[in-house]
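Practice record 12: protein with uridine-diphosphate-N-acetylglucosamine.
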Amino acid sequence: MTKRAAIILAAGQGTRMKSALPKVMHPVGGRAMVDWSVALAESSGCERIIVVCSPSQAQLQAHVTENLGPDGVAIQETPLGTGHAVQAAETHLAGFDGALVVLYGDTPLIPPDAIEALFARLEDGAGVGVLGFEADNPGAYGRLITHGHGEVEAIVEARDASPEQLAIRLCNSGVMAARADEVFSLLSRVTNDNAKGEYYLTDIVALARADGQNCLAVECAEADVLGVNSRLELARAEAAFQARRRRELLTEGVTLTAPETVFLSYDTEIANDVLVEPHVVFAPGVRVESGAVIRAFSHLEGAHVGAGAVIGPYARLRPGAEIGRQARVGNFVEVKSTRMGAGAKANHLAYLGDGEVGAGANIGAGTIFCNYDGYRKHRTEIGENAFIGSNSALVAPVSIGAGAYIGSGSVITQTVPGDALGVARGRQVIREGWSVSYRERMRAAKEETGDGQ
Ligand code: UD1
Ligand code: CA
């Protein structure tokens, strides 16, 4: 197979976002838009990936460098158009003799098979492959001027188009593929003699045609190429992602009682026969195994839920929550960096942070793992089948042995051995008849001072 590379254009200012954050770093489905494009390039087998940034986008440059290394960033000194932006990455690809796909950093939902189809057109001998779509409202998009079956003559930007061309609904998504050396050689001939005074990447199509090359369009759905320029479009892209992912999960055998109220992330993994009740949020990093139930109004992030476990309603699983098979995490229970063994239960009102709960253990209502001393975090270990009485504070580091009991309301600061009882609270005192004499004393005192009515 021919080698593949990707250039991701992200140097635009994104002023319509009105944001301190670079546009392409805004998330869709819990992942920065630029990372969607990087992941798409990776899944398409691109061995070189370069993101074109502007000199002012330090935060974006740092983010890309972290993922792709310093070679992954190209700087476009001034934004002179999409063609000029691609040229900014030319030296990065010096000597690369494979196929190149150009992606945008602000178009996160493109399916991998669309990219595969573009590369396939090149393998079949096309000079340039263009990803197009039928727009409901073509507006400012570039129009694909075609003849025959998807053969593209030229791409005309809306501002440069004639009224007849503006009536065309087949539009340019911006994604384009061609041999890398061909792209740079065609770009060297592109001028900025157009309405915007910019160097258009899209002009390489007409130039390739003039050279006698074949340019072919691949068509995809408009929802797959939603570009984001404003918060409104960001919300639309998010909605499109959510709709797509919900549909996939339903198809794969997950029950979503009210799909439109369940929010998923790009990497959410839910096995078949899981039931997800209404109003559940899956932040990134969640995996749920078969037969589990996620009850209403729960929030999960960076968590693993074992087969048959029941979470919620109103539960919060934070990063590092490992919930074992058939375990129970009930209402208003927060779990962070804690493994709960098979069948362990924390059914009501608890905080389990930085710990380990053995299989079959029962954590009473109001239990708190006091994991933080103001400086460092400490661990709480609870053995199998231990029973923690309600409203206990376990001051970490501390360990409770297997089968041990903790009396309700205890503040436990020392190790409790297996099968022992640990109680740490004031002893109960009973004084028979005390209330009667108390009331008499109080009444007498009041009469003496003449206080009250
Ligand atoms: C571009 C296409 C148009 C297509 C549309 C799809 C051209 C000339 N036009 O138009 O045919 O229908 O996208 O959304 O290519 N960028 C840079 N440096 C620049 C200019 C742009 O990095 O100098 C980046 C932007 O950050 C953005 C992408 O390139 O990610 C597209 O640029 P934009 O100005 O939005 O292009 P459009 O005018 O929308
Ligand atoms: Ca745009």
